[in-house]
Amino acid sequence: MEEIFEAIKIASKEIKEVILLGDTAKSENENSTGDTQLKLDIASDIIIEKVFKRIPSIKEIVSEEQESIVSLNEDGEYLIAYDPLDGSSLVDVNLSVGSIYGIYKDNFSAKNIVASVYVVFGPRVEMVIAYENKVQLFRLSNDEFKYVKDIKLNDAGNLNATGSTQMNWTQTHKTLVNEMFKDGYYLRYSGGMVPDLHQILLKGGGLFSYPGTADKPKGKLRQLFEVFPFAFTYKCAGGDAIDGSKSIFEVETTHIHDTTPCFFGSLSEINRVLKVYSNNG
Ligand code: P6P
User: Fold this and answer.
1) Which of 135, 224, 245, 263 is a Cys-bridge partner for 151, taking CB atoms 3.0 to 4.6 Å apart?
2) 102 lines ligand 1 (CB under 6 A)
3) How many domains does the chain have?
4) pTM for the complete prediction?
5) What residues make up the domain containing 239?
């Protein structure tokens, strides 16, 4: 497992340079979920696949930017699903973006995730590893990722990251969000999943929601590449993640690019979601 973390560090240093110098124009391609790919997405994907190909313990990889699974080593132990540069269009407006990695055993499913890593490319480059019930923060300094601290969520926080378009929210979701703001929560939402979830973790608590909506009943965020890795991180940090009614770890995957409604947070906020969503049907 350590060799995978080291490979992600190597890839992240290269991706940092691509972000600084790279071409942020749109490519001619679309990914498997219809998003127009930026040249940054494709460049980041190539960097990550290149470093993963050198690791014998990796059996398969699948990228959000590619249609299908890539087999690497028949006797490999781990399967990795990754989003090479989530929110990449935010680079154009100089906001933070990130890479997300879910590391699985046996098959790509919520119950089989064994580690997660994400990297935030912002004013600083930071990497968070969730493994063996620990969440550890590393920061890039003088070309080396240095350990900073362990991350733990409090029971409750005061940040509220409200994803998707409000006009498409259900009445239940509107009730949840409005009640939180009435209780004094602060709106903190950049449109980048990685920095938005990173902020809640570092500030000790709150809620990030990307619910099912009228236009996207199954949500927008992808199970394998985005939701399961962050659910694992939040769980290891003492919080939790649900789809509105049940644990994210009970969500079934039928296709590698499936999405799911998702709520990540400290325990108090997750319990609030369960209460509002169960009371309002
Ligand atoms: P919306 C970025 O495109 C992304 O996939 C996530 O990083 C982010 O949380 C979400 O979409 C933002 O979506 O609909 O709120 O703009």
Assistant:
1) 135
2) no
3) 2
4) 0.95
5) 159-280
